[in-house]
Design goal:
Keywords: Isomerase, tRNA processing. 21% of the residues lie in helices and 26% in strands.
Length: 274
Amino acid sequence: MRILLQLTYNGANFQGFQIQNEGRTVQYELERILKRMHRDFVRIHPSSRTDKGVHALCQYVHFDTHLNLTADKWQHAFNSALPDDIYVTAVRQIPEDFHSRYHCIGKAYRYKIYQAPYRDVMKTGIETYYPHDLNLELMNEAAQAFLGTHDFTSFCSAKTEIENKERTIYSFQVDKTKDGYDFHVIGSGFLYNMVRIMVQHLMDIGQGKKNAADIPAIIAARDRTAAGKTAPAEGLYLEKIYLTVEELAQDIPPGTKIITKNNRKALTTDPGML
């Protein structure tokens, strides 16, 4: 049978989701528990592979098993053995043709910055300190230039190995918070460092260091050096994974066309009801 886990984690002390040659990873912690339970290696498959220092409020992974456990027992087995910075929030059985990556039709990320006279050590690793004055109206105006389907070569890491760098951005909004700003973006998918590069570019615009009108030309250039620096990882949160068209449609502007492809077939029902 195939099992789907919904989980959350604080990425501050992880080298990322995916197993690395050294250092802690979320994947290792989950597979360690599965190996102990099955007495054999069991591979997990995530909806997203977050980078070093990036957090997840909602992440999905699936795996195949011969063990016949209830959802409650699976959840207890994981949470009783996982470290304090990972928690499984839900478990469900799913059809064997469901894939947590290929059924993902969209993702939402939130980037959090705070402003203060000095760095707050209690926020180290969970929000980014950015003390400079920012123009909210300019940043929101600039964010709209990212909407639609584009080749985001200019706004992803030069180390990105994926050849197809075309992605669709459905919404991008900057909000003023009590002590800083939140950058909230929803898209069909995101490339390596893409959100962090776009956020840093918007902050540079909000600070008056860059011009919002230049974004279309930067996108068209398909040149990583044209976009500028990358924001730190600590402020980035994978906020939501969309597995159904209905769920995604609720969070984006009405009438927005949702992009689905054959290798990213969308579910038509809530996975919790499968």
